[in-house]
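Worked example 2:
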Amino acid sequence: MAEKKKVLFISYSLHSGGIEKSLVTVLSLFDYQRYDVDLQLFANEGLFLKRVPKQVHLLPPLFPPEYRLNIRQAFPALLCAGRPGLALGRLRVSLAGRHGTMGERLGKMWNVESRLVRTPEKEYDAAVAFMEGQPIYYNVEKVRSRVKIGFIHGDYEAMGLCREFDRRYVKKLDALCTVSESCLQSLQRAFPEDAAKCHVIYNILSERFLRLLAKKGEGFSDGYRGLRVLTIARLSPQKGLDLAMPAAAALKKRGIGFRWYIIGIGPDGQKLRAMAESLGLADRVVFLGEKANPYPYLAGCDVYLQPSRFEGKSIAVDEAMALHRPIVLTDFSTAADQIASGRNGLIVPMTPEGIEKGLAELLLHEGRRRQFSLALAEKNYSNERELSKLYALIDGKQ
């Protein structure tokens, strides 16, 4: 039997976001007969940590838990822990991340953090940075591996990343992967000199596994008997929940019965709760927080809403499609990669008015909801074979 290849996966943490969910799915389906796998996280935290398969060797985190705190808490906590150098570094990272686009901030922060993180002792056959920013930078600068692979899960141009900073890292990767054709085109426009090393590997989804999880654990338990709208998203500006709040208020004013449930956490949580309160939506919007298994909720909703400003290829939308839920999407750049508007879902303008109109169409017309569910049921969404593309890159065959 051939010796197993040594593979390192790198990401930031395993909180309940789409990238993190995609990573644990990949690890759950990975071929451990052929590969020994290590997982390096910047922070060993998150709801999905317990879903990492036992075959994966989880390495110590690059940063201690204190580092992840707000700077006013992190600085004294690191000093008390006897880490004055790291405390000073954390302060410098905080200052570096105050100004600029997201990409510029990531670059300035990495210029500090690169001096704070260790180099892995082991040498690998392949290293896979599963997220843009620091994981890719760490892979290129710190990891010794024969093959270096990076992933960018979103629309590179829409994400506000910094081409000038990233170019040097992309040049040193053997492959740069993304999750849809639109995202591939965005990468190739950003890095035309490295277009040949850009690849599409779709988010991996097992319909059988989803349906199994949908039958386990808790779902809706509030006794509400009306129509339920569900969104699974990080509570951040990217996800456009602030655009949907006025739409929900307008629907309520029209006397349309519904309750909107939101699964997720994030930096805008307090702001969004205050917004719901100010719009008189306390009886209509329910914040459910993080859910390790959101699928009973997804299977039980009447409409799935994704009001994002930009996406790569939304895993939550893929999962809603696999469970045949009627879907409303805003017209972010990759929406049409997933939904054929009017046939198996609705793509609406990225405005409160557009979202209101789309939701009203589905909430008021049961036949329309049924039409979309039947159209979604015509397709099998399982695509575990996408892993063969990643294996080929790891083995240096593409």
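The chain has a mean pLDDT of 94. The longest strand covers residues 5-11.
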